[in-house]
């Protein structure tokens, strides 16, 4: 399809939005603008209150937003059927104490109403979102304050009780649920905004705030969170930081290692490490917070976060394009960076098999003609006319050169969300396809899709689907393999093959999901042994008894 017909086909979306935008601009007088700023403090208070009042939702929501909060089809009533992690993977319990009646009495006294022991209530907290790993914890604690977390950990450390910190339980590597009977320490009730500074854009909040709630809070103040992910309706900011989650906005706003300015962390012995600064620059000694970002709850429990939030972009455009080959995706990316420059905010790709899954399992519709690959490009800027002109020039260029063969653009919020859903909901669609083996790989971009092709060839008919998608702009591939059910034989065919392949090209076996339980034994494919040894030494120093999230992230040092 030539560019002119692309404009003809989809011009309706653009024009409508453009008119609405122009009207908005006319209505937005200077007076309204100033009063909007003045109202911020009031709004902040009201929103903080709403956030505080928000009910803690025990169910897992992957998809959220105007398309509706969508609970997964997986039901926790069937969680008993998930094989115990210890059985499936043959893990030995470490010699931690068992929770006694006097331990329960202690916790009841300390956090009345925050102690859950009912096996039915505990079920969803023992099973991961993918229903692939299951622990057998008999105790869930729900503190509200840092002081309570501190008291809990001090007690557990003395008693040698293992603890599994848990946020929204949306992790994809088995890091957020217990392996045995670890006490689950949930951040769900630690969901308050502490402060927001509209000059600096720094938000300080408790670790259990749900990402989407924070984003809504900020949007009303003309700001946004610097990260966005499919699990936003359930995941907690503390869990995001503990995982160093990347997500869909990393290309534009960078990783949490840059946007997180400060952390408050409770160490295994209960001491509170207050690094909750809001400074952009602070070179006084080692940057200790970095140690906890991405440590998956193994070094301390993150209780509060200070994070730098960007202004809400005034103009957002989205292009969803069809592409005939992976090399054309790469060339389009290079062209895109050159022509869109500072307004480029996402460059995502998915293959045709992903499209088939979202269409067949979620009944979404493909807005462009069938193609081997699809690209989603988002721009976020401050001037609609300028941004649209840039995007149109870019689209004309890639269509004229044949890099892109079909496409559609959206500037209207609803349509943007509809198009984003095609990419964001792939994870959800995969869960309808059977058991999912997940790989989250960083590679030099030009090698990214070769891994999918080689895996497909290697597995042949033993896998149901082998799909590739991800954050191409960040060099991050999500390789997912589905099968009717879990199979050791299939797992052996995939691992260590995928890790060896990744190591050969000096990639990372975990780009943004962490190592958790499932990948900890493969760390050496991406890190030299000396660095793993040093990590183990840090762990031993900060948590000598190993009570924090045991069986996760690092192979044991013995
Ligand atoms: O399910 C996956 O493999 C990826 C999930 C998430 O990181 C995404 O980018 O959609
Ligand atoms: Zn991702």
UniProtKB/TrEMBL annotation:
Compartments it resides in: Mitochondrion
* Alphabetically ordered keywords of this record: FAD, Flavoprotein, Metal-binding, Mitochondrion, Oxidoreductase, Transit peptide, Zinc
Q: Name one GO cellular component term.
A: mitochondrion
Q: Which cofactor is essential here?
A: FAD
Domain named FAD-binding PCMH-type is located at: 133-312
Q: Which reaction does it catalyse?
A: (R)-malate + A = oxaloacetate + AH2
GO MF entries: (R)-2-hydroxyglutarate dehydrogenase activity; FAD binding; zinc ion binding
**InterPro entries named in the record:** FAD-bd_oxidored_4_C, FAD-bd_PCMH, FAD-bd_PCMH-like_sf, FAD-bd_PCMH_sub1, FAD-bd_PCMH_sub2, FAD-linked_Oxase-like_C, FAD-oxidored/transferase_4, Oxid_FAD_bind_N
Its Enzyme Commission number(s) read 1.1.99.39
Summarizing the function annotation, the protein's role is: Catalyzes the oxidation of D-2-hydroxyglutarate (D-2-HG) to alpha-ketoglutarate. Also catalyzes the oxidation of other D-2-hydroxyacids, such as D-malate (D-MAL) and D-lactate (D-LAC). Exhibits high activities towards D-2-HG and D-MAL but a very weak activity towards D-LAC.
Q: What is this protein called?
A: D-2-hydroxyglutarate dehydrogenase, mitochondrial
Species, as recorded: Crocodylus porosus
Q: What is the lineage of its organism?
A: Eukaryota, Metazoa, Chordata, Craniata, Vertebrata
């Amino acid at each position: 399809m030539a560019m002119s017909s692309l404009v003809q086909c989809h011009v309706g979306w653009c024009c409508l939005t453009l008119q609405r935008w122009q009207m908005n601009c006319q209505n937005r007088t200077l007076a309204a603008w100033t009063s909007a700023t003045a109202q911020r403090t009031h709004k902040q208070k009201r929103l903080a209150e709403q956030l505080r009042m928000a009910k803690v939702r025990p169910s897992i929501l992957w998809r959220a937003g105007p398309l509706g909060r969508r609970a997964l089809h997986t039901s926790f009533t069937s969680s008993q059927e998930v094989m115990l992690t210890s059985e499936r993977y043959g893990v030995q319990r470490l010699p931690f104490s068992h929770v006694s009646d006097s331990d329960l009495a202690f916790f009841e006294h300390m956090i009345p109403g925050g102690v859950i022991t009912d096996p039915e209530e505990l079920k969803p907290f023992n099973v991961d979102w993918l229903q692939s790993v299951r622990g057998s914890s008999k105790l869930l604690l729900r503190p509200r304050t840092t002081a309570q977390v501190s008291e809990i950990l001090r007690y557990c450390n003395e008693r040698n009780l293992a603890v599994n910190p848990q946020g929204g339980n949306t992790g994809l590597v088995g890091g957020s649920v217990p392996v045995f009977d670890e006490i689950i320490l949930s951040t769900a009730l630690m969901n308050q905004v502490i402060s927001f500074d509209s000059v600096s854009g720094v938000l300080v909040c408790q670790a259990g705030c749900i990402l989407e709630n924070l984003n809504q809070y900020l949007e009303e103040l003309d700001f946004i969170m610097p990260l966005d992910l499919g699990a936003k309706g359930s995941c907690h900011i503390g869990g995001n930081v503990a995982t160093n989650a990347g997500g869909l906005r990393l290309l534009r706003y960078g990783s949490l290692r840059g946007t997180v300015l400060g952390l408050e962390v409770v160490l295994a012995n209960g001491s509170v490490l207050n690094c909750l600064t809001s400074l952009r620059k602070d070179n006084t000694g080692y940057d200790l917070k970095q140690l906890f970002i991405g440590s998956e709850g193994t070094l301390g429990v993150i209780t509060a976060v200070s994070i730098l939030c960007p202004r809400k972009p005034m103009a957002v455009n989205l292009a969803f394009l069809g592409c005939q080959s992976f090399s054309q995706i790469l060339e389009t990316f290079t062209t895109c960076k050159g022509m869109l420059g500072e307004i480029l905010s996402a460059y995502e790709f998915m293959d045709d098999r992903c499209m088939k899954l979202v269409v067949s399992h979620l009944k979404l519709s493909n807005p462009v003609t069938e193609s081997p690959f699809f690209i989603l490009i988002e721009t976020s800027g401050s001037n609609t006319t300028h941004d649209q002109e840039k995007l149109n020039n870019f689209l004309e260029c890639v269509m004229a050169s044949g890099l892109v063969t079909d496409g559609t653009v959206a500037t209207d919020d609803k349509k943007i969300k509809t198009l984003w859903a095609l990419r964001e909901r792939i994870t959800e669609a995969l869960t309808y396809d059977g058991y999912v083996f997940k790989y989250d790989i960083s590679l030099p971009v030009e090698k990214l899709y070769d891994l999918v092709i080689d895996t497909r060839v290697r597995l042949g008919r033993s896998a149901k689907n082998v799909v590739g998608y991800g954050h191409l702009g960040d060099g991050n591939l999500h390789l997912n393999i589905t099968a009717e059910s879990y199979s050791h034989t299939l797992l052996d065919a995939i691992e260590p093959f995928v890790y060896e392949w990744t190591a050969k090209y000096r990639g990372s076996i975990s780009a943004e999901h962490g190592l958790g339980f499932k990948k900890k034994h493969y760390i050496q494919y991406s890190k030299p042994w000396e660095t793993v040894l040093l990590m183990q030494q840090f762990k031993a120093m900060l948590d000598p008894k190993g009570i924090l999230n045991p069986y996760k992230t690092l192979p044991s040092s013995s």
